[in-house]
Amino acid sequence: MRPRLISAAFLVWSVIAAAWLTRGGLASSAASEAIPPAPQALFNDYANVVPAATAAKLNRELEHYQWKTSNKIVVVVYPRMQSGASIEQYTLRMARAWNLARETGGNSAALFVFVAEHKTRLRVSGGLEGVLPRAVARRIVDDRITPLLDRGDYARALTAGVNAILAAAGARGGERGATFELQLIWGTDDSTSPNPKHKPVEPDIRDKLMALPLKWSHYFEVKRRRFVVPVHGARMETVSKRCAMEVTSLGGARVEVCLFDRGKKLVNRSQDLPRGELLVLGGNAPNATAWLVILRRIR
Questions:
Q1: Which of 112, 140, 152, 223 counts the most CB atoms within 10 A of its CB?
Q2: Cα–Cα distance for residue pair 105/15, rounded to 1 Å
Q3: Which helix (DSSP H) or strand (DSSP E) does residue 169 occupy?
Q4: Average pLDDT for 36-44
Q5: Does domain 43-168 have CATH number 1.10.10.350?
Q6: This prediction's pTM
C-alpha cells in the first residue's frame, strides 16, 4: 500500500506544479505583449512610411467625417507588432483597451498596419458594421490596400484604403449610393392567395415576371423593403426568418448579390443592374408554388 500512497502524493504535487507553471507561463506571455497607448490623432503613422503632407491630408478627411457623422475611423501604422498573438487577437485587445466603441456609442472602425509583419487588419464595430460588414472590410484590405503595400507604396495604399472606407461609409460627396427595393414574391397558378394580406404584384412587375422563363401565372407580394447601399459598400437585409440577402455595390451599375438560407450561401451573382431593372432569384420549384426574391434598383 505504501508505494501507492507515494504515487498518489506524487501525482497531486505534479498537478499543482503543472498548474503553477502554466499560470506563470500565461502571465509571462501576457507580460510580453505591449498595448500601445490610444492614438491622439485619427491618422497615425508611427512607422514614418507616409509623407507628412499625405498624413495631414488623410487626418483632415477623417476629422471631417467624424464631425459630420460622430462616427470615428482611426488609422494606425506601427513598425511592428509587440505581441506573439495573431493580428486578430492583438488588434481586438488594442481596440478594447482604447475604448473606441465606447467613445462613439459603438460606431467606430480602426485600420491597423504592421510594417515588419506585412499585416493589415480593419476592425469595425457598432452601426458601421451595416455599411462595413466583414466581407466589405476584407475586400477593402485585399483589393485596395494590400497590393500597394506589397509594392512598398504606403502613401498610395493608405490613401486608397481611407478613400474606400469613407466611400463605403457614405462620406464621399456625390456618392450617396444606390437605393434598392427588395420584394419577397409568391408564385402560383392559383388566381387567389390563401392569405388576404398578400396582394397581387404591381402590373409592371407582373409583366416583367411573365416575360421571364417562369412557369407561374400569378404572383403575390409577401414583403417589400427599401434600403440604400453605399458606393463600394454592402448591406445585409433579412428576407424571411431563414433567408437573408447581402447586396454589395461594385461601382456604377455593377452589384454583387448573395442569398443565404440559414447562414448557408445559396446564390452568389455579380451583374449590372441599371435603374428600374429586376434581378430575380428563385423560380421554377418542383412543387405547386415557388418563392421568388426580387431586387430592383430604384435610383
A1: 140
A2: 46
A3: none
A4: 94
A5: no
A6: 0.52
